[in-house]
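Appendix B.2, paired examples.
Example (i):
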Amino acid sequence: MATRAQFSPLTKKHKVLLVDDHPVVRQGLALLVGREPDLLVCGEADGARSAFQAIETLQPDIVVLDISLAGPDGLDVLKEIRMRSGNLPVLILSMHDESIYAERALRAGANGYIMKQEATEKVLIAIRKILKGDVYLSERLTSAMLNQFVHGSDTIKSSPIVSLTDRELEIFRLIGEGHSTRQIADELHLSVKTIESHQAHIKEKLALRNARELVQHAIEWTVSFGGSH
């Protein structure tokens, strides 16, 4: 990791766009990134629409994106970024368990995944590594993925939750956060019937017998593994 002393006053500042729906989180990230001589927070966004507007007008060099956003979640935003902005680097920074979300994020086009519980200096390491064209993952997840590749072991996919599609996982998380079917439909701009169909698939995949078990399981998983947004 390069220290501040290694950067000259003429060092190019890379523009960083922060996308998170919590102002306190954005403020903390802005303070962290803004004190670095080679990095500049060019803007902030709290959701999909403002994120796309900021990308278009500010032309950031990298986007730091949370998964849990009001409306379309971070994975949906990431997929749209890939469609609109091609190779724009994106670092996912989230409370959500990397064993569940990191591989999904990479498949969706992320250049790295880091949990908010990590030390702050690792966020800077991740940003700089991605700006150099590399992929950033935690040492634990990198080791698990390598082990899976070399030995064929399934150490990452140890939970039946990973069988859910991205949309099903998003709905499962929202159920765990206390949202009703109608609220989920409104937030995701889908019909109640579509949400109910997804819920039926979730129950089938997780071997849950009824809606009560679905809600209970979703709450327990969100508290234990899904993180808090």
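Example (ii):
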Amino acid sequence: MIERCHQLALRIIQLLKLRLHAPLGLTKNFRFPPRSPVIPPNEIEGGGTNGGIKQGAVFDTEIASPETDKSVLHHVLGISRAPDPLPGKQDQPGRELRKTDFPIFMSGDILHDPSRSLLLRRRQLLNLSVMQKLFLAGAICAISLEALAQPADPSAAREIAKIDGEYSNLSVAKGMPAASVEYFAEHGVAFAPAAVNGKKYWAGRTNFPGTLIWQPIFAFAAGAADLGYTTGIWELKNGNEPLSLAFGHYVTIWAKQRNGQWKIALDVGTENPQPSEPPPSLQLLSPDVTAGTQPPENSRRSLQKAERQFAQAAHDGIGKAILDYAADDIRVYREKSFPAVGLVAARLMLTSEHGKATFEPGGSKMSRSGDVSYSYGNYSEERGNAVDHGIYLMIWRANMNADWRLALNLQKKSLPAAKQ
């Protein structure tokens, strides 16, 4: 959980930079690293077979907030009780680093990277006139009121997590096919193994074996509350038999319909060994109020540019490309493996992925607020004399600098590797 008490001012300043950079030219090289606030966990109540089934990633990292007088008043407004550093003793960029020192750990059989850090780079005192300082202070106050008027709200993420749990309950009561027909959108996508219409696909699955149950462990929704996703673990049970048939993780994309209801836009899962630990509590990630400040056209162009650059990088090496464009809390899903969460854990998982990947897009959608988007399709990965084919899902989130980063990458082989 990240303490956000004193980070609002930092976000306000960054937003001010984006809006006043051209006329003022005062904030050159003044950047704060992207940070997505994580609110305290909220568990979804579940009883019977739905309780304690699925598991996921949990960050237990607490990062100290910057001191107000040094990080805001001193570096922006030029107000500080401390004397200015001597010319030869100014802090160099990147020297002051606040981060947790915990090692990577396993939680719920998932690799975690809790070393998400907040880089606090001290900047040289801005040479501002009195009028410039007064204007800047007034602008900050105005932006503060705007930011406070539109606080980050995790209620949409909590809502889709609740609906996801209800979907599982209906699967237990009526079976997975009937539940899916009710919860899928008219054009929702399922994979069998290629992309198909989910509602039609599940309507024809009359021979589905066993009972599928799951539990969401992570949820995020866009600032516009029109698009979001949940992840968690699933378990396939065989009636009242004590041994389950299979285990795995899933990702579900939720889209709000015109009637205000949340329906499934896409659903996909991977299989993994039986978990050895109980599932963690549900984690809700609230949207960044500064991430959706760009006009939709600009956000879309920026996203398309990031996707093109990623595709070019993936052609030289898929693993490195994912890491280069990854968000701090990226989730990586691969078949027969537990998910990796965080940069360090993702690096461990992707160490052996040096193949040259190409992508064939099948569909995509961006939220109205321009802060989250997903895309899916088919991929081919060339590894030496063999080529893997399968389906992919990528979820992109925009940060406070309006940069798009990979929040989730899923690749699932649908066909065995073919010899060239």
